[in-house]
Recover the amino acids of this structure.
């Protein structure tokens, strides 16, 4: 693994605009980098990323059975008591899931280490699946990259295939906070994949989801929602007004309720407990079980974009991001060095679609906490 | 050249863009419009301003599909477990499908019609297209389909289609499968989700 600079495509901003990729710039900062790339060998991808991701996902799926069968474990994950049954049933009934993203620490030496599993509301799928792929095709056509340059990326075909597994008889609704451009773009991209998978689709704002007299969720045309992708976290849904309808109607959602277990950072402690010393895991603990660690990271069980994450070196707080998370508790994870260059720190996002490891997206940040000002950098495979 | 990981099918965008300006992305297909409405009776259909012939034709098709393909149960209790107490009736197989003898089926709750049908020709055209595409929602429509209401309130229909991928198929007669279908209802509340509306996204 190494990082290279290369000429940007001269017209890449037009191309971004043409496909509606407006959030290539966010908060006034560039988000998509067209003039840099991470380079891997095929063997590195296969043995260090693809294989381990496949294995981590299988381990996680096995662990879900344990966790949903234990009131104590669900309690540790701060799943509210009244929704344990919703989570449990969604798992027992095999409610279908769509996708998730492992964040991995990998710097080219030693095995990749799992930082967390974004299993409920992962973003950067459009950048990874579509725009990154176009970037590679263009750079090869321009002669900037050699013809044999490849990419770990069968994301879109996997997404279309995954959508084909869902029943197509009803409208597939897609709910997001539509005033957020990134969330909306991510959601519309997934709708596109659903259309290619044979679905009729409709976008609605999370706040516009309604409920009828007998507790069924409805859309703005007063139709019953039979299936709904949501880019909105389960932990919020458990704590909001319509949560009382989840026991009856919660099974319509994708990702399904059991994903709340995997998206929770308490998962990391359960993984370490069940698979101690696994090469792709970092020692992780609940804080009431104090770890013999001096370099570690403290993460809220529920947190996004690096909020409320603190890094400790030699037992002292070294770096910390503010935020509004942490009420539900924390997990402590051994510190893992990230790939580091003059451009900053890189975290590998390894995608699981259905149950298949099928793509990679890399984000860079100036600090070792990847936050909402991180940048997306494409990657290539070159042997 | 070994190209194992990308490039087999270059990704395309069916909708052309991920910048949805409006929220109206429904029914990217052509006609029929997807404003499917459930009517409980021909009278109710006509009172809603639909053409009488359309109302009758849709009802007759739905009844035909109901008699041939309603979900079947050996015991009343099994039927009621699915469709609710006192929601099932005894029926007798006479359709030569090999399932002779008596069994239990749920009452029909209503039937679907698209509000896009202005006259009977529209409906017939739609039926022809559906049949060409396999029927039973094969063309994306449910007009003329019977609707049942399950005990949990979900509305389902029964279609003479293979049960591929149908996760809710239950004990229906063998040639039919039970599928959920979006029906109209009356929304009594909104804004029950999405309370945490700070400007950042929720993706991770």
């Amino acid at each position: 693994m190494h990082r290279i600079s290369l000429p940007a495509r001269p017209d890449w901003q037009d191309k971004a605009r043409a496909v509606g990729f407006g959030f290539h710039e966010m908060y006034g900062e560039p988000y998509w980098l067209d003039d840099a790339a991470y380079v891997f060998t095929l063997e590195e991808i296969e043995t260090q990323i693809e294989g381990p991701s496949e294995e981590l996902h299988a381990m996680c799926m096995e662990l879900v059975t344990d966790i949903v069968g234990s009131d104590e474990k669900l309690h540790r994950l701060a799943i509210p008591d009244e929704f344990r049954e919703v989570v449990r049933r969604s798992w027992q009934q095999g409610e279908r899931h769509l996708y998730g993203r492992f964040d991995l620490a990998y710097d080219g030496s030693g095995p990749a280490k799992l930082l967390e599993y974004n299993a409920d509301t992962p973003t950067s799928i459009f950048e990874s699946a579509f725009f990154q792929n176009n970037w590679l095709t263009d750079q090869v056509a321009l002669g900037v990259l050699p013809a044999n340059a490849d990419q770990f990326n069968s994301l879109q075909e996997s997404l279309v295939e995954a959508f084909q597994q869902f029943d197509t008889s009803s409208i597939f609704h897609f709910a997001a906070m539509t005033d957020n451009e990134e969330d909306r773009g991510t959601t519309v991209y997934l709708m596109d994949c659903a259309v290619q998978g044979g679905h009729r689709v409709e976008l609605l704002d999370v706040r516009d989801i309604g409920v009828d007299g007998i507790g069924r969720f409805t859309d703005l045309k007063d139709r019953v929602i039979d299936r709904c992708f949501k880019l909105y976290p389960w932990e919020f849904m458990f704590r909001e007004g319509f949560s009382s309808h989840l026991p009856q109607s919660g099974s319509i959602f994708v990702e399904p309720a059991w994903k709340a277990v995997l998206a929770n950072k308490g998962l990391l402690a359960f993984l370490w407990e069940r698979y101690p010393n696994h090469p792709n895991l970092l020692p992780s603990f609940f804080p009431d079980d104090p770890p013999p660690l001096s370099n570690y990271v403290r993460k809220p069980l529920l947190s996004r974009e690096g909020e409320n994450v603190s890094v400790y070196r030699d037992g002292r707080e070294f770096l910390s991001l503010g935020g509004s998370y942490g009420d539900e508790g924390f997990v402590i994870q051994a510190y893992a060095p990230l790939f580091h260059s003059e451009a900053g720190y890189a975290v590998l996002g390894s995608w699981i679609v259905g149950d298949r490891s099928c793509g990679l997206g890399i984000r860079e940040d100036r600090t070792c906490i990847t936050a909402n000002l991180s940048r997306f950098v494409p990657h290539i495979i070159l042997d | 050249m070994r190209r194992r990981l990308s490039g087999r099918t270059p990704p395309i965008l069916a909708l052309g863009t991920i910048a949805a300006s409006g929220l109206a992305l429904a029914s990217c297909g052509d006609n029929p419009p997807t404003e499917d409405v459930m009517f409980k009776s021909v009278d109710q259909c006509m009172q809603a301003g639909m053409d009488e012939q359309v109302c009758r034709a849709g009802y007759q098709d739905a009844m035909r599909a109901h008699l041939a393909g309603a979900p079947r149960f050996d015991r009343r209790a099994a039927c009621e477990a699915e469709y609710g107490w006192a929601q099932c009736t005894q029926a007798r197989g006479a359709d030569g499908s090999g399932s002779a003898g008596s069994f239990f089926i749920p009452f029909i709750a209503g039937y679907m019609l698209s509000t896009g049908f202005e006259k009977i020709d529209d409906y017939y055209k739609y039926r022809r297209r559906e049949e060409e595409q396999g029927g039973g929602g094969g063309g994306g429509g449910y007009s003329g389909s019977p609707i049942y209401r399950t005990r949990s309130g979900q509305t389902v229909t029964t279609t003479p289609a293979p049960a591929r991928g149908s996760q809710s198929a239950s004990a229906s007669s063998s040639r039919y499968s039970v599928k959920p279908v979006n029906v109209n209802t009356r929304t009594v509340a909104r804004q029950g989700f999405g309370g945490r509306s700070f400007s950042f996204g929720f993706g991770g």
